[in-house]
Amino acid sequence: MSIKIEIIFKNNPKHLRQIYTGFSELAQRGIIDLTVSRKTPFDYDPSSRPVLNVILNEKVKIAYDTMDGFNYIPGTEQQNLDYLETQLENVDFYFKRSYKSGLPISNRHKLLPLGLYYQVTSSNNFAEKFYLYKNKPFKQRIKEYISHKPFIKTSLEKYGYTLNTKPKFSYDAFEYPPNLGLDPMIIFIPKVWSSETAKYDQSKKDRIEVSKMRIDLVIKLKQEFPSIFTGGIISDDPEIHRLYPQYVITDPNKTDRLFYTKLMHNATIGVSTRGLHRSIGNKFTEYIAASKCIVTEKLDFELPGDFEDGKNYLSFEDTSSCIDQIEKLLHDNNLRFEMMKRNYNYYHTYVRPDALVMNSINTVLKKIS
Question: What CATH class has 186-351?
Answer without folding.
Answer: alpha beta
